[in-house]
Amino acid sequence: AQSVTQPDIHITVSEGASLELRCNYSYGATPYLFWYVQSPGQGLQLLLKYFSGDTLVQGIKGFEAEFKRSQSSFNLRKPSVHWSDAAEYFCAVGALDNTDKLIFGTGTRLQVFP
Amino acid sequence: EADIYQTPRYLVIGTGKKITLECSQTMGHDKMYWYQQDPGMELHLIHYSYGVNSTEKGDLSSESTVSRIRTEHFPLTLESARPSHTSQYLCASSEWGGSGELFFGEGSRLTVL
């Protein structure tokens, strides 16, 4: 069965520091992979997605993620974090059956200190 | 910017009451979804629809029901709310043949006393 693991429940970084949020998935075929961000009291917003091709994917707000098939990972990175990046981040995997049903991880809460 | 709206944003009600959470989208998307979100837990799909008169149960069993009479509208109903129904409910939509991206509403936070 499909599953997504985000091993870090809570991460704290200083503003300007680099960031990497981990995501591991379990899926039999090549998955669709997504990262969403949720600010307090808001819905989820898509940061980036991977379907095929280049394994390094660029997203909005300066985020990028790298798909590594050998490690079943899709880690999210940002070279320099801004205070406004404080939010909850969700990794998700989708099936290639046009249903758009997504399996989400438990999320990583990012706290940014000035 | 996504055009998907949920009402109410916050609701506190007593046990046994019937409630309906509204979800509307103006993007003409055929596919719509309801996810349940609890703190520290993953989002769980509880209902989805591929179009008018189409509704399916998701991966997480839920006592709620949904209907899809119009493309733009996908309400969720609880006939008799219980404290175990306290949660955040997120509505989302996507288009056929699209990128797989889900567009989410801002959520409805339900508290049942």
Beta-strand residue percentage of chain A: over 45%
What is the largest interface, and how many residues per chain?
A: A-B, 25 and 28 residues
Report the biggest beta sheet of chain A as strand number plus sense, adding barrel if it closes. Answer: 6 strands, mixed
Can you tell me the overall shape of chain B? Answer: globular
Counting helices, strands and paired strands, the structural category of chain B is: mainly beta
Q: What is the overall silhouette of chain A?
A: globular
Describe what this molecule looks like in 3D.
- The complex is a heterodimer of chains A (114) and B (113).
- Chain A has 114 residues and is mainly β.
- In chain A, 0% of the residues lie in helices and 52% in strands.
- Chain A has strands at 3-5, 10-14, 19-21, 24-26, 32-38, 44-50, 56-58, 64-68, 73-78, 87-94, 102-104, 108-113.
- In chain A, the strands form 3 sheets. In chain A, strands 2, 5, 6, 10, 11 and 12 form a 6-stranded mixed β-sheet that branches. In chain A, strands 3-9-8-7 form a 4-stranded antiparallel β-sheet, with no helix packed on it. A two-stranded antiparallel sheet of chain A has the order 1-4.
- In chain A, a hairpin with a 7-residue loop joins strand 10 (87-94) and strand 11 (102-104).
- By secondary structure, chain B is mostly beta strands.
- In chain B, the strands form 2 sheets. In chain B, strands 2, 4, 5, 6, 9, 10 and 11 form a 7-stranded mixed β-sheet that branches.
- Classes of the chains: A mainly beta (114), B mainly beta (113).
- Chain A binds chain B through residues 4, 9, 32, 34, 36, 41-46, 49, 51, 90, 94, 98-107, and chain B through 2, 4, 6, 31, 33, 35, 40-43, 45, 48, 58-59, 90, 92, 94, 96-102, 104-107.
Jot down its keywords.
heterodimer; A: 114 residues; mainly beta; four-stranded antiparallel β-sheet; globular; B: 113 residues; seven-stranded mixed β-sheet; 0% helix
